Amino acid sequence: MKTRRTHPNDPHISNGKLAEWLILLSRRRIPGLFRLYSAYLNCDLGRALPESVFLPHPFGIVVAGLAEIGEDVVIGHQVTIGNRNGAMAAPKIGNRVYIGAGAKILGPVTIGDDAMIGANAVVTKDVPAGATCVGANRILDGKTSDRA
User: Fold this and answer.
1) Does 145 have pLDDT greater than 60?
2) Does the residue 10 lie in any domain?
3) Closest Cα partner for 23 from 43, 62, 53?
4) Which of 7, 45, 94, 146 lies at 20 to 30 Å from 18 by C-alpha?
5) Residue 4: inside a domain, yes or no?
6) Which domain holds residue 118?
7) What's the CATH number where 91 sits?
8) Is the pLDDT reported for residue 146 higher than 60?
């Protein structure tokens, strides 16, 4: 029996069968099957997802074809990682980034390693490594106890 791989920082985060199949099909690109399964989950994946990505709830996820996603990234449901204003430049997501449910990361931005993007955040500016972004581009550096 295969043991389920868990996130290195949080053992409670792992991929279920739906997410495992979505990641596998995004990497293999079997045209009809991938399109049908993506439609079932309401996902639009323009690129193959890394094997190490975590999708706790793999529904409604949109990833642009030019986006770069690092290792051990957690992507919540209803997340959009894509272009902005028609520009053909997509985000670069670092390693061990947590992207909360409903977050929108748009345009040619860079999200640093170990950053956290809060639920329903809209990110159109770079987020440094280890920082937290909430709301509309509100970046908390993690050193202060500033509360929103």
Assistant:
1) no
2) no
3) 53
4) 94
5) no
6) 17-136
7) 2.160.10.10
8) no
For residue 96, how many other CB atoms are within 10 A of its CB?
19
Listed residue (9, 15, 91) closest to 53, CA to CA: 15
pLDDT band at 45 (very low <50, low <70, confident <90, very high): confident
Q: Structural domain tally of the chain?
A: 1
Is the model's pLDDT at 65 over the cut of 80? yes
What is the C-alpha separation between 138 and 126, in angstroms, rounded?
11
The token pair that represents 130 in the structure block: 């280890």
In angstroms and rounded to an integer, the radius of gyration of the C-alpha atoms of the chain is 15
Contact 7, 72 (CB under 8 A): yes
How confident is the model over 75-102, as pLDDT tens digits?
A: 999 999 998 887 788 899 999 999 999 9
pLDDT at 148 > cutoff 50: no
* Residue 127 forms part of a structural domain: yes
Written as one string, the DSSP assignment of 29-69 is --HHHHHHHHHHHT-EESSPPPTT-B-SS-SS-EE-TT-EE
Which DSSP helix (H) or strand (E) runs through 105?
strand 104-106
Tokens of 97: 């980034």
- pLDDT mean over 36-48: 86
Enumerate the active-site residues.
Answer: 57
